[in-house]
Amino acid sequence: MTAPVPTAPTAASPAHTLSVVIVAKNEARNIAGCIASASFADEVVVLDSGSSDRTAALAAQAGARVVQTDWPGYGPQVARGFRLATSSWVLSLDADERVGDALRAEILAAVRSNAFDGYRIPRLSEFCGRFIHHSGWRPDRTLRLGRRPVSGFTDHFLHAHMTVDGRIGELRHAIVHFSYPDIHDVLEKLDRYSSGNARDMLAAGKSAGVGKAVMHGFFAFVRTYFFRLGFLDGQHGLMLAVYNAEYTYYKYIKLMFLKSPPQRPEFPA
Predict the structure, then answer these.
(1) Does the pTM of the predicted model rise above 0.70?
(2) What residue ranges of the chain are covered by domains with CATH 3.90.550.10?
(3) What is the 3-state secondary structure (H, E, C) of the chain?
(4) CA 77/CA 82 separation, integer angstroms
(5) d(Cα 226, Cα 231) in Å, to the nearest integer?
(6) Residue 169, strand partner residues
(7) CA gap 238, 231 in Å, rounded
(8) I need a surface site. Which of 78, 117, 186, 222 has the fewest CB within 10 A?
(9) How many CB atoms lie within 10 A of CB 12?
(10) CB atoms near residue 250 (< 10 Å)
């Protein structure tokens, strides 16, 4: 269900103000562009968790309120940002995401409307230089915008997500997500995300083994490339299907070793 969009939004009132919350670490190549795309908000809050590059300085130069913090995990960090925000609405963005003009107008209209308490927003994501339109990556609707008093975030290590205690609507225009700009990012995120997901699976009491890792990896490829029409994304769809298979395989292998760490063998006589 989509909220009605007013044709002529009025000036923001205290009940219709918006804070954009961005959590970041070592995002110097992304942070200024993200903040620029969010400049329509009443404030932009960047939570920097000990960057060793110029993330914090660039964020401040771009006009954001920068808060230096520790790293309690993605979900708790975003929830902390919601508490630090001062507006009546909050929008959660990652540093590698951008808000275009059409989405900006839609967000401002939604904030000034009383139709819903939160909104799911679709995402258009990049994989090695190409936007992916199939493969399970579209429309990728995710809850990102909500009234601050009723908005929170789960505390999962990897797949934390926003929560809104109230009515949920959907926006039409997409957040642009520069998620995997090159193969280095693909390999780095494969390792990091599979480790994080293994930790969440361990906390959830999931089981693992080599056979399960192979089986789930195989079906991840089939699901991405065939059932979710990844073949329509050309060679990038094939690469993404292989990535999903590897990611799935490794998260189960890592879970197996979290549950039963490998032991160094005896030195042979």
Answers:
(1) yes
(2) 14-180
(3) CECCCCCCCCCCCHHHCEEEEEEECCCCCCHHHHHHHCCCCCEEEEEECCCCCCHHHHHHHCCCEEEECCCCCHHHHHHHHHHHCCCCEEEEEECCEECCHHHHHHHHHHHCCCCCCEEEECEEEEECCEECCCCCCCCCCEEEEEEHHHEEECCCCCCCCEEECCCEEECCCCEEEEEECCHHHHHHHHHHHHHHHHHHHHHCCCCCCHHHHHHHHHHHHHHHHHHCCHHHHHHHHHHHHHHHHHHHHHHHHHHHHHHCCCCCCCCCC
(4) 9
(5) 7
(6) 119
(7) 6
(8) 222
(9) 17
(10) 19
Residue closest to 199 by CA, chosen among 248, 251, 161:
251
Give the list of residues 6+ apart from residue 260 with CB closer than 8 angstroms, or none: none
Summarize pLDDT for 204-246 with one digit per residue, the tens.
999 999 999 999 999 999 999 999 999 999 999 999 999 999 9
Paired tokens of 49: 């968790």
CATH T-level fold of 14-180: Spore Coat Polysaccharide Biosynthesis Protein SpsA; Chain A (3.90.550)
Question: If 0-12 CB within 10 Å is exposed, 13-18 middle and 19+ buried, where does residue 1 land?
Answer: exposed
Q: Hunting for tokens 């990012």 — which residue is that?
A: 185
User: Cα(141)–Cα(161) distance, rounded to whole angstroms?
Assistant: 12
Could you tell me the CA-to-CA distances from 158 to 51, 127, 246 in Å, in that order? 20, 19, 17
* Tens-place pLDDT, residues 44-83: 999 999 999 999 999 999 999 999 999 998 999 999 999 9
